[in-house]
Design brief:
The structure holds two protein chains of two kinds. Chain A has one domain. Chain A starts with 5 loop residues before the first helix and ends with a helix. In chain A, helix 3 crosses helix 4. The relative contact order of chain A is 0.13. Helix content of chain A is 56%, strand content 0%. Chain A contains eight helices and no strands. Chain A is globular. Chain B has two domains: 105 residues, 3-Layer(aba) Sandwich (Rossmann fold), CATH 3.40.50; 163 residues, Rossmann fold. In chain B, helix 8 links the parallel strand 8 and strand 9. Classes of the chains: A mainly alpha, B alpha/beta. Chains A and B meet through helix 1, helix 6 and helix 7 of A and strand 2, helix 2, helix 3, helix 12 and helix 13 of B.
Chain lengths: 139, 278
């Protein structure tokens, strides 16, 4: 029996491979992104940024411009119809974010502040909002 | 005969018991028999981008639990719904049909219409995002649903926020400030009395605008529920408005369940947080 998560990891690996093959680095995804303006290292051309994103997907160090963009991606999805090569840049950026955060086993390249109370805060609100029976049956 | 469905409400909407309870009543009124599940034990794993081993384990556990229930799943949370579509079902065998609540209510709007009996006199602007709308066209469906409520006039503020919901902007304060400012500006320009959110993640952020006196804010479920005569109190809004005074509203018995130390450290700062108004 395959270990838990093996299929998901294989899906992610195959998506990375597909994206690396399909992307022509035209940069249109970056140029239409409404979040690019919030990057710590904005660039005037998408062509400068996208190769760095692909480098992250390959497990290599990303450029400052690429990491800055990856850090501000909030899944707007405006990039998807803008891509002339059907890359699905939203998936590209999601996988790049997972990789840059160290989530796929590669070295961490961007930081994210961990909220140690995240799940406990949800449980606390549940206790404030639901009855004991609802907590037992619904959560 | 009612169709049994699993109402998979997600995690963070547990801040809003009134929304969960209203959704259950709405589903029952539309002819469904909802069985609610959610919270961290049913997490989709989308918050674990930095640990895909944990995310995969959470996805497998949750898909397995939803499979065991052997009935259609109605999702509330846009993060859960899109994560199922993008990742969870790629790594696990999903044995249930799935729909998003807005989609289901919209498909049953003919049944909803006669239930909307109480006027809600309000000119509202829907708070929209660009993301998620490609998966479920909520930016089209919600104005149609809100427009069915007697007294509600839906105004187009001409502003669509980036991202797919507001909570993901928490680490990006400048962008969130822009969303707040643009939302208030658009609502005022359109002549709206209130801003209505689609997602609870936006409601959680924008209700700070309400607490700060910038504009009244509701979730769309609040307006549907009010028109149907459902009377669940929006306690989160009351606590948010009260800030330091929330403890008195919550009361000592409920606070004891959470623990004073945890409440003061991890809950109260959220209730006291206010947006930067420009």
């Amino acid at each position: 029996m395959a270990p838990i998560g093996a299929r998901l990891k294989e899906f992610q690996r195959s998506e990375v491979e597909r994206i690396l093959s399909a992307c022509t680095r035209c940069g249109k995804c970056y140029e239409v992104c409404p979040m690019a303006q919030y990057s710590k290292a904005p660039a005037s051309e998408g062509k400068v940024v996208v190769p760095g994103v692909l480098a992250v997907l390959r497990g290599e160090p990303g450029s400052a411009e690429a990491l800055g963009w990856i850090a501000v991606c909030t899944r707007s999805g405006v990039c998807v119809p803008a891509c002339p090569d059907q890359v699905d840049p939203r998936m590209m950026m999601r996988l790049a974010r997972m990789t840059a955060l160290g989530g796929r086993g590669e070295p961490k390249q961007i930081e994210r502040k961990e909220d140690r109370d995240y799940f406990d805060r949800i449980r606390a609100f549940a206790k404030l909002q639901l009855t004991d029976d609802e907590l037992k049956e619904w959560t | 005969m009612s169709e049994p469905v699993t109402f998979w409400y997600g995690c963070n909407v547990l801040r809003h018991g009134d929304i969960i309870h209203s959704c259950l009543d709405i589903l029952r009124a539309l002819g469904f028999e909802p069985s609610p599940v959610g919270g961290p034990d049913y997490c989709c794993g989308t918050v674990k981008d930095a640990n895909q081993t944990a995310a995969a384990g959470m996805a497998t556990r949750t898909v397995g639990r939803l499979n065991e229930r052997a009935r259609r799943v109605v999702a509330w949370c846009p993060s859960c719904h899109s994560h199922m579509h993008d990742f969870m079902e790629r790594g696990n065998d999903r044995h249930f049909d799935m729909t998003y609540l807005v989609e289901l209510v919209h498909a049953n709007r003919a049944k909803l219409a006669p239930l909307l009996v109480h006027p809600v006199p309000m000119r509202v602007m829907l708070h929209k995002h660009v993301g998620f709308n490609e998966l479920v066209p909520v930016n089209r469906m919600l104005p149609e649903l809100l427009g069915m409520i007697p007294g509600v006039e839906v105004l187009d503020g001409g502003y669509v926020a980036p991202g797919y919901m507001c909570a993901s902007f928490a680490p990006l304060p400048k962008a969130l400030e822009d969303i707040h400012a643009n939302t208030v500006r658009a609502a005022k320009a359109a002549g709206a009395d209130a801003v209505v959110t689609i997602f609870h993640q936006c409601y959680r952020e924008l209700v700070g605008l309400d607490a700060a006196g910038a504009t009244p804010v509701y979730n769309y479920i609040h307006l549907i529920a009010r028109s149907m005569g459902l009377a669940y109190e929006d306690e989160y809004k009351a606590w948010k408005r009260a800030g330091d005074g929330a403890a008195a509203l919550i009361g000592p018995d409920r606070l004891a369940k959470v623990g004073i130390e945890f409440y003061e450290r991890a809950v109260l700062p959220e209730l006291k947080k206010r947006p930067v108004l420009r």
